[in-house]
Description:
Elements: E1 2-12, E2 18-28, H1 30-36, E3 38-43, E4 46-53, E5 56-61, E6 76-79, E7 82-86, E8 93-95, E9 101-103
Antiparallel strand pairs: 1-2, 3-4, 4-5, 6-7, 7-8, 8-9
Amino acid sequence: MVDLRLGEEKDMDPDGSEAREYSSVCVGREDDIKKSERMTAVVHDREVVIFYHKGEYHAMDIRCYHSGGPLHLREIEDFDGRPCIVCPWHKYKITLATGGLYQSINPKEPSAKPK
């Protein structure tokens, strides 16, 4: 089984930082995820997609944080050796390793170059 650990927001720590509590959630059988290379699940009230890519598991929100594009429907693409999911709506490239933005373009500009 594959356990996914995501933080849940809790009360503030005495030093003012945000406290997080982590708990494991079983999201599926390892063999099934490896075979399909992705699956979706709801973890702590968040819809996530879990990718199995080149021997590693990666999880991120199912929708692009920019404008809600469906990331779980996209194929993994490598950019400069970094596996990414490209949002179908605005072409934001989101890295599997961090879930952060790699590059974006403005789809309204015909000559737009990635930033």
